[in-house]
Amino acid sequence: MTDTPQSPLKLQTYPTGRLLGAIGWSALALFAVWTGLRYAADLDVAIYRGGVIGLFAATLAHLAGTTVGAALAPAKGSSAAYLASTVARFMLTPVLAVSLYFLLLAKPQPVLVGAAVGYLLILVADIGTMFKAMQTSR
Asked: Which of 36, 27, 37, 40 is nearest to 117 (CA)?
């Protein structure tokens, strides 16, 4: 019997709870930033509303993508599940942003900015959480 070292990129379990927590806290922080800008910069209500709608779309996409990753992790492994999760989030964010834009009739530019900034900043927190989970699982 030979001992094979574990790959540094292999996770034993998918860190669903940590990822959902990182998404939630990041979304709350971004909402606070939008609200702070609303009052500090005296943003128009339509711009604030559009930005928050875009942030909401990005948050929903991240939550749905993480759920997809958690569902795939037992069968495909954590690394493949995280990749699938990222692809799902990347595809869902614009779909949800456009859907909410038409549903709620917001200004398009703030929705786009809110969705793009929300997606990218939540993704950074998500990647950091996944990286930390990979390091602690070795």
From this structure: 27
Query: Whole-angstrom Cα distance, residue 123 to residue 62?
Result: 8
- Between CA 58 and CA 49 the distance in angstroms is 14
Long-range CB contacts (< 8 A, 24+ apart) of 79-88? 79/9, 79/10, 79/11, 81/14, 82/14, 82/130, 86/123, 88/61, 88/64
- What is this structure's pTM? 0.84
Q: What is the pLDDT along the chain (138 residues), one digit of tens a residue?
A: 444 455 445 556 888 999 999 999 999 999 999 999 999 998 889 899 999 999 999 999 999 999 999 999 888 888 888 899 999 999 999 999 888 888 887 788 888 999 999 999 999 999 999 889 888 866
* Sign of the four-CA dihedral 20, 26, 27, 28: positive
Q: How many residues does the chain have?
A: 138
Closest alpha carbon to 125 in 73, 62, 32, 72: 62
Cα separation, 86 vs 80, whole angstroms: 10
